[in-house]
Structure formats: structure tokens, C-alpha cells
Design brief:
The protein contains 5 helices and no strands. By secondary structure, it is mostly helical. It has 2 domains: about 35 residues; about 80 residues, no CATH class. α2 crosses α3 and α3 runs antiparallel to α4. It starts with a helix and ends in a 24-residue tail after the last helix. The relative contact order is 0.06. The C terminus is likely disordered.
């Protein structure tokens, strides 16, 4: 009888340890995912300032635009919780509005650079494919470009 009780105690301890380890792994995964999700407004302004050679006034205006769009995003997230397609649609409108406002601040040369940044944005926003593949090697895409000419 004493042996069965010790076995049960050992099994319960193992199960408890396994559950604690599982919760810890889930927490770390969710935390890492949240960190990858969005870069800070400061970093976004800094990146755009470097890419477009923004003046201080332009950078300050971009910051205000990003702050306002972030407030809109938060409100949209709360309003459309659970409705992914409505949220996606509304987020696209917010992004377009911010892009249009930023565009109005830029010189022609900066607009040309910003257009390229906007064009490249969708590929940067896609999630990474599973199993460590690059986007170019994702399922349904050949590993190497074919010569069909």
C-alpha cells in the first residue's frame, strides 16, 4: 500500500511539474509573439525619419499621425473584437488615412521613397512560413525560380 501511495505522489508531482512547464512555455511564446507584433511609435518615427530624411517638423507631424492612428486602432480593436474581417477592413482604412496624411507632408522625392516603403509593406507584414522556410520557399512556391523562357 505504501508503494502505491509513493507512486501516486511521484506521478502527481510529475504532472504538476509538466503543467507548470507547459504554462511557462505558453507564456513565453505569447510574450515573444506580442513583442514581434508592432514596433513602438518612437521606432517607427525614427525608421521613417532615416529612410526619408525627414525634417524635425515632419518627424513631429508623423509622430502625431502615428499616435492618432494608434488610438483609432485601439478603439477599432475594442469595437470589432471577434470580427476579424471587419477589423482587417477598418485597420486598412486607418492605415490608408495615416499614409495619406504622411504623404501630404512629404516632398516629391520623399513621396517616391515612401511609395516604395508602402509597396513593400505587405510582404513585411505577412507571418513567417512554418518550419523555418523563407517566404520564397513557402508551400506552393518553388524553391528556385524556374527558367520558363
Amino acid at each position: 500500500m505504501k508503494g502505491n501511495a509513493m507512486k501516486r505522489t511521484h506521478i502527481l508531482k510529475s504532472v504538476k511539474f509538466g503543467l507548470v512547464a507547459l504554462f511557462f512555455m505558453l507564456f513565453v511564446r505569447d510574450f515573444a509573439h506580442a513583442q514581434r507584433g508592432r514596433i513602438s511609435i518612437d521606432d517607427r518615427v525614427k525608421n521613417l525619419t532615416e529612410q526619408l530624411s525627414l525634417s524635425k517638423d515632419q518627424a513631429d507631424s508623423v509622430r502625431r499621425i502615428y499616435e492618432a492612428s494608434e488610438k483609432e486602432r485601439s478603439a477599432a480593436f475594442e469595437a470589432h473584437r471577434g470580427d476579424r474581417s471587419a477589423m482587417r477592413e477598418y485597420m486598412a482604412k486607418i492605415m490608408k488615412g495615416a499614409d495619406d496624411k504622411i504623404d501630404s507632408l512629404l516632398t516629391d522625392e520623399q513621396k517616391t521613397k515612401y511609395d516604395k516603403i508602402k509597396k513593400d509593406r505587405p510582404s513585411m507584414m505577412r507571418p513567417a512560413p512554418p518550419s523555418g522556410r523563407t517566404r520564397e520557399q513557402a508551400p506552393g512556391k518553388p524553391d528556385k525560380p524556374s527558367d520558363s523562357n
